[in-house]
């Protein structure tokens, strides 16, 4: 993020020591450390929220895709079932017709 060399960091520390003074410098450094920690936690929280939202969106898209595939599979199975029912009916009709025509004629006395 920021690129500080050791020389630049030393200059900043010397200026802070001169401007703030040796009595208040530890308190200011501690306060800056706490603020930096809060900022890091806030940024990490935002990152995790964004990642969670992206994951939820991916799961929703996957759910929609799976539901569409399930509907397509259900329709295919229904069509296959109807086709099998139709073929069974045709076979039953074909089996019944020869049986009816092959009955011997019964003559009445």
Explain this structure to me?
The chain is mostly helical and 109 residues long. The chain has one domain (7-83). It is 84% helix and 0% strand.
Question: What would the average pLDDT be, to the nearest integer?
Answer: 87
Beta content comes to under 5%
How many angstroms separate the termini? Answer: 113 Å
Overall SS class: mainly alpha
- Flag low-confidence runs: none
Helices and strands in order:
Elements: H1 6-20, H2 25-101
Concise synopsis of the structure shown:
This protein has 109 residues and is mainly α.
List keywords for this structure.
0% strand, 84% helix, mainly alpha, 109 residues
